[in-house]
Design goal:
By secondary structure, the protein is an alpha+beta fold. It has helices spanning about 5-15, 65-70, 90-105, 105-120, 125-135, 155-160, 175-180, 230-240, and strands at about 30, 55-60, 160-165, 165-170, 185-190, 205-215, 215-225, 245-250, 255-265, 270-280.
Length: about 280
Amino acid sequence: MIESDRELSAMVQELWDNDTNRLKPGKDYRISLQGKVGDTMGNDDKNDAHGFPLFTYVDESIFKKETFLAFISLLDNYESDTGEPEIVTPEEEAENHKFLDSIIQTPTMKIAHKYLVEKNLSPKDKEKFKEQLYRIWFELYARRGSSRPDSSGFEHVFVGETRGARTVIGFHNWIQLYLQEKLGHIDYKGYSVNANSPLPDENKHILALQFSWKHGIKPKGSIFIGVSPEFEFALYTLCFLSSPNERVKVQFSLYDVEIVCHHYNQKHIGTTYPVLLKYQSAE
């Protein structure tokens, strides 16, 4: 592991250790992995051998916590089709700021901010830091094939988008997945593994999976499960600002993970998500 990745791993471990709002698998939530899917799958129901939801239980009292509440309020602010320009209302802009205000107070975001200031990657002033976060995550830009601003890092990563009605892109967040599944908009197809990746574990916090959403299919997505919005926001911001590489290997807790973080114009997050490489063996 190269030195910069080792340093980042230590930071991610600190974020993990201080993620006080993280849910406990088997206690605060339960998932049902069911079966494995192949890498390709048509968009029809007969391919779904399971038909059962991924989430069998979530203690929804967690959604009353400030950062979860502020996060969930943002999920209905977007037009999912790429190519459809986004109109941000004053109310939605206020919700974005309220979310940033809530996460900036959390231990994970304070740790990330302190580190980024020490590395001269973020301003020390909290308001200026918030402006930086807003630009990275919420400023609109035009995705491929669109001439007008139709996307943002937040929309792509946390909410999900559709391309050509048949393909789901982005959508790397468990809270959105759970809420959409509860509404009947998600059809979980099964977990996804390749020859080198470890088998998923219902009591671990990272999962590669396949699902359909609305009328599109996500052939393979990878998400953290049960972590807080502030943990993901802090982690991805840290990787975006501190690493010129678009794939960063980090080790923390029980996981060896590659964080994929594509930059858009070096100013915004294009996409970002975790890829589980292996479980660390317990000492």
